[in-house]
Amino acid sequence: MTWSGEAEIRGAAGPLVLLFLVGCLVACAHARAWAGPDPESGADNTPADAAGLHLSLEQALSLALRYNRSLRAAALGVEGDRAGLRAAEADFDIRVTPLSSINYSSTTGDQQAVWQLGGAVSRRFTTGIRLELRPSVDVSDEEYGAGIGFSLSVPLLRGFGRDTVLDTVYSREYDLRSAGRALHRKRVNTMLATVEAVYNCVLDRKLIELYRDQIALLEGHLRTTRVRERAGIARSMDVYRAEIRVRQVRDSLNRARERAANDADRLKKLTALPMQRRITVSAPLEYTLIDLGQEEALRIAMEHRVELLQGREEIAEARRREAVARRNILPDLRLEADYSRRGSNRYRDTFLFDEDIWSLSLASSTDLARTAEKEAWARSRLEVSRRRLDFAGLREQIAAEVRMVLNRLHKLEAQIRLRREQILQARGRQELALVKFRYREADNFDLIEAQTELQRARAALLAEEIRYIVDGYRLRAALGTLLAYDPADTAVQRGGG
Question: What pTM, to 2 d.p., does this model score?
């Protein structure tokens, strides 16, 4: 009876175990399907909707400007300069400094402990004047004391005036604006690199399609030639010639596929996409010829290039620092005033503040020769001259860049016209060679040469048209109009004080 019951239980558990095993297998299959690529096998097991991603040119640019790692690092640098500016401005805030101390002194036959509690409220103004308020309470073994003090420090020669006192703040503002312009230039360069990578991917795809069509055409011609050879119409040299050309085009196809993989990886790096992600791209191939004279292009570049704005501010900053260095030659003479009221002795008289203490003094700690300050002034004047020379060189460099891009565009226009004429001539030559080959008036040498010339002309035309489109973006970057620069992104407000 017992054995029969166990048999019934086992018989009922069999289907349940089978269903459990099937469920585990299905779950493992789903988990493997969503696990992504296997690094050992190199296969991509990610589902098609998760693995494949199609990017238009606008989408690629948006991803690059938002997620590019170099741009994000540069943006963090701008935020670091902004934090440095806030730290420099904090030097002119009201500061509250608590003070507490316990002092114990011992001499022969005399021990004394002093407790002191108080603080200081101070502020440094942008004119260089420093004001401080010091309330305090102290307790010793014999008496109590309390007081409140005021102190004033006024620089009379060196260190007086906003230009000198705010030197650090102005330097941090300059650093922040320079970092913002450097970020803008990096954004422009990233846009250019992304445009070039996208169009390289488009060119690779078009070339792969062109080579595939060429291989299909040549293989059909090879089959026809072999049939003609067996029929005694063609020679073995014709078959050999066709086979060589097929292998050449297959080699070109393999190189195009390798370039396509490398260009896709470069685009994924620019857009911060995972390297294992499969992407396809598209970009418009329509374009209009650019009709822009050199004089007009140079005028636009001189008005919009952010590098020129940076160069002008570098000169202004060098002149400002030269003025500060010249003022630092003056002696460091300060007027210092101090006043305090105290109450002490018995506990009930502690807070009456019946004792007045005041002082007034002129203080200076300046080297009479001031050699270091004079040398700093001389170096600052040299820096102004160097910045002016750099700016003149920058203008020439920008002008040369604009002329180079324009000349390259004009040369590409001529080459595009030439390639189109070559394509028409190659088509005519191919049709003539095909007619002669069909009527056995010539071998396949002329036919293969005509097909090769046509394929090369098409590939060259496609490459030059895409290069013309990319150089159009380069011209906009050279003119400073590819990406608008907004100085308000790093603008700072100078407050009074």
Answer: 0.79
